[in-house]
Amino acid sequence: MVAGATRPRIFHECTVLELIVISTLNGVLFGMLLFLLSSGLTVIFSMMGVLNFAHASFYMLGAFFGFQLTKWIGFWPALVVAPLLVGAIGMAVERYGLRNTHKHGHVAELLLTFGLAFAIEEIVSMIWGRSPLDYRVPALLDFPAFTVFSTNYPAYKIFMLAVSVAIFVALLIVLKRTRVGLIVQAALTHPHMVAHLGHNVGRVFMVVFGVGSALAGLAGVIAGPALVTQSDMAASLGPILFVVIVFGGLGSLPGAFIASLVIGLVQTFAVALNGSLASAFGPLDPSAGPSALADIWNVTIAQVAPIVPYLLLVIILIVRPMGLMGTRES
Amino acid sequence: MTAAIEVRAVEKRFGNVGIIHDLNLSVAQGERHAIIGPNGAGKSTTFNLISGHIEPTSGEVRLNGQVISGLRPFEINRRGLSRSFQVTNVFARMTVWENVRCAVLWATGHRYAFWKNVDHLPEVRERTARILEDIHLTHRRDVPAGLLTYAEQRELEIGITIASGATVVMLDEPTAGMSHAETERAVSLIRRLTEGRTLVIVEHDMSVVFGLADRISVLVYGHIIASGTPEEIRRDPKVKEAYLGEEAH
Amino acid sequence: MTAATTSASNAAKPAGENLRFYGVWLTGVIMLIVLPLVFSSGGSLTSFSLIGIAIVFALSYNILLGQTGLLSFGHAVHYGLGGFAACHMMNAVVSHGWPIPLPFIPLVGGLGGLVFAMIIGWVMTKRAGTVFAMISLGIGELVASSSLILRSVFGGEAGITTDRTALPRMFGWTFGPQLQVYYLIAFWLVISTVAMYALTRTPLGRISNAVRDNPERVQFIGYDPHVVRYFAYCFAGFFAGIAGGLAAISFEIANSAYLGAIQSGLVLFATFIGGTAYFFGPILGAILVTYLQLGLTDVTSVWQLYFGIIFIGIVMFSPGGIAGLLMMHRPLVRAGSLWSVIPSYLVAIVPTVALACGVILTIETIARYPDGERNPVNLFGVAFNPGSPATWIAAAVLVIGGFFVARLTWMRIADAWDRAATVARDRGHLI
């Protein structure tokens, strides 16, 4: 799932530095991608009180639409059209699903999006199958951008980073300069105020939900070629995404930003590191035979990488149950 | 005799905004004490500070001589202080009977017991039945609390509050939104149920306040400007200026 | 207002009600005993066994969702750990020659689920609501991923196998035949169901409901909602562990799929579809979901999609689940006004079934499109070729036409329902 960090084959003095540079780049990239998703999720949660379980599914839809549209009309038009399609689906979900479920409470809304996530995964695998798709980097960007020591860093990843940063900046401007942005900001700090928006509250919700979904879709389109486009990509990214927003503090945009970068970096570095307790302190006495201790002793950090976000979650819950920047009970 | 409630120099700030400053309040054992004041004076905040719903920024609150500020609400409740809420705050999906019974369970020592059948606890059943009788809701015992009328919910709210047998009872605008007849009924209910206990009440209806209270404190802008018997409060020029003066006209 | 009081408002339960209460339980037990004698094929015995396990699991889940208001996305963790604990115990019993017969093994599973709940539960139940849901998801992933790392405990991809017949015998039973396993599961099903029902009748059970309804207020009647949630979590973990132990006995294996997200999702589906507000709801849900799971896998490759659709439908249109739908009718039955609703139900069946057929046809057509004529969609004996435009048109007509006609009939149901409810209200059977 994490952008495959290139592991150096030959060990020389530069390897450590090289590993740090490449992993930092990949980590920031993965973190920015996570933020593209977690920002939409956070804003939707703050305004509507709904945690959209299907958010990662919209990301997946973005990737699959991106793949299909690239085949039909090329990558660049797909980059625009696919997120719009996903945004439209998101708006429909809000208008015809969530709005009717609202009266049954937040648990019902969460369950609705859970059911949707489940259904979307099944529909995607029904149409495109369960194996990874051949979603390629566009030819225009298929060259190494620069070389760090011995590793070529692909231009496409730089492009991904640029898109993420551009969206980040655009979001900042929208938040600070527009009317909807002001409403969103008010919602972030005073969630109860949203009810007083007046008659167009429904439309604001629909637009916010649509934009959040479209951003998730955009993340999917650009991440698809670099990562794996497969029908389980939502199920594997979703839990990490929720770790991000709980870790950052539910409803806090700065929290989501920091948490995205932290989780992105930590996981990328974990994948890149090959050490284990055995390599650091020497192997255990082999006569002891297989045991849980031996398993822990011999496991490499790279193998542990998938559980690192969840370990961070447990730690933050013990140390700071509200999350990094969280202020709210629930 | 130590005061039932003693609030000393309590301060509450939200960020840079001071809501309560230098709050001092003393309620004697068995006294019926009313807190009055204009909207936004901090009456509900005062309630929240005493009952542990929010923590004071500084100062301390004592219950029967023991410091309770900083304790969690349930710890304060276990020490014999019980409160109601201004906005009806009952267990909506549970029946009236269940609502009151839940409020009886801790006080009767059953706590988190998972080995006792709750229907076979005679003292719980009797106490619950008595309270339902007291709040005139026996005929509604199997109705989910969420389906009661507003006045009935307010009565249930009082029932839940007194169910634990707390020695100090705090009622937050118990008659708000009630008709005249309902208010009269509620006042006689409160009078009867808080017999022999300490009562602190926030109330807007001045006839209720002056009819019920032994002592009155006037809260203006998070500070108590006067405290005394109804007669003293009526005569107090500061009160007249800040509060009653506006009411009279 | 006086007329609105329900008939059950007398202080003491009448003898008749007691009799009915025990009658329901007794009927259940007799059914469990007789069922395998009526349907004795190996396939139905296996189905009954699976349903029994699913019922225990779903009821344990409802301690969280229905009783305490905690939405967990990782409940299978306790089911799986119970299964692993049971497998390891069975292997240990065999290798050490301990005199522990098989019927006690589910208890070990329960303890496995309980111990983990006691360790992780305190941190998890600090928060309720959405945050709890997210945490449960994270913990679920944590345990599922860890199970692949700790190979010596969880056996990696292959899992841990065991042999239930190698344990000491009890009453001369080997537990080799499926019938004996069925009765073992039925025994634990009864024990667990009675225990979980009893739990709802204890002070803790009642306070759990109060925490579900209003955690803030609970603090002002002397209770710490965190402690209440923690206890509820531990009990849920314990009974999920029993279900996992039963599964380990039934399949003679425990693997990482036991504790994964899919298992957690299925128990959520079963419980919610059955209905969380009534104790028997999850039982209905577990029967239905297990039955569908067994039945649909043979007929269609996209059975999980149907689960998702049924689930979404229930969430949107009947959040009380099947049990809620059934219980809605009780006051009408008592008031004798149900008959006035039934005709509109009968009218609505036709277009609703047409709509359902249209949806099924659409899904199956898409799913089978790549195979073309070789894999036709069979609907009520009619074969549809997924590659033919005629099929697409039929599907579109059924979906669109069915929807608009069905919507009209649904509105008629709503009107008829309102009238019947008014009658019931007037007669004092509905508040």
Task: Describe the protein in words.
- The complex is a heterotrimer of chains A (330), B (249) and C (431).
- Chain A has 330 residues and is mainly alpha-helical.
- Chain A has 13 helices and two strands; from the N terminus they run ααααββααααααααα.
- Helices cover 69% and strands 3% of the residues of chain A.
- In chain A, strands 1-2 form a two-stranded antiparallel sheet.
- In chain A, a hairpin with a 2-residue loop joins β1 and β2.
- In chain A, α1 packs antiparallel against α7 (201-226) and α3 packs across α7.
- By secondary structure, chain B is of the alpha/beta class.
- Chain B contains nine helices and ten strands.
- In chain B, 47% of the residues are buried.
- Helix content of chain C is 72%, strand content 2%.
- In chain C, β3 and β4 form a beta hairpin.
- In chain C, strands 1-2 form a two-stranded antiparallel ribbon. A two-stranded antiparallel ribbon of chain C has the order 3-4.
- Chain C folds into two domains: 39-327, ABC transporter involved in vitamin B12 uptake, BtuC; 340-426.
- Chains A and C meet through α3, α4, α8, α11 and α13 of A and α5, α6, α11, α13 and α16 of C.
